[in-house]
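=== RUN LOG ===
request id: a7f3
mode: sequence -> structure
chains: 1
length: 198
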Amino acid sequence: MLFKKDKGGTFDYLIAGLGNPGREYENTRHNAGFVAADMLADKFNISLNKSKFDALYGDGNIAGARVLVVKPQTYMNLSGTSVQKLSAFYKIPSDRIIVMHDDVSLDVGKIRIRRKGSAGGQKGLGNIIQLMGTEEIPRIKIGVGAKPHPDYDMKDWVLGKIPNEQQADFKIACENSVKAVEEIIARGIDSAMNKYSK
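=== RESULT ===
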């Protein structure tokens, strides 16, 4: 049996969900992007079973487009390593990369979609912007809530678990992120922003 080799330039979109690999980081605020990526893969029957380019990823079809769904395995702050490698290999331009990530400035249950802009303190997105050399990267921000008081350590906050009483709202935000990805691909980012940005 012959196996087809990966060839560059064969995908329309790269969708990256950001997080930290490892069981100890499951269900933490920082792993919102991983949760959304898994939901997206499940909905569109995409197996995230390839391990290369410092990522777990798989390919499939969403709204008639051929896509890569990617979970960088470099830990959050170096997320750009895998995104840049995959983008370069498959010749996917930055405006066809969609990044899903946690956002502490949004309440749990809310999402916000942006066409471009700074990282706003999100270090994974910041690393992607740095390595890609542009802020023109669409992103879906998934609300995880602000830290309880200014003195609370941000690292402890984002690496903390989503409380049980917020799980339902968090799930809704991740589900809406999946819907937003489909909307961006099918009808454009303006339509997605109108429908899902809260």
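=== NOTES ===
Residues 1-8 have pLDDT under 50 and may be disordered.
Residues 110 and 161 are 17 Å apart (CA to CA).
=== END ===
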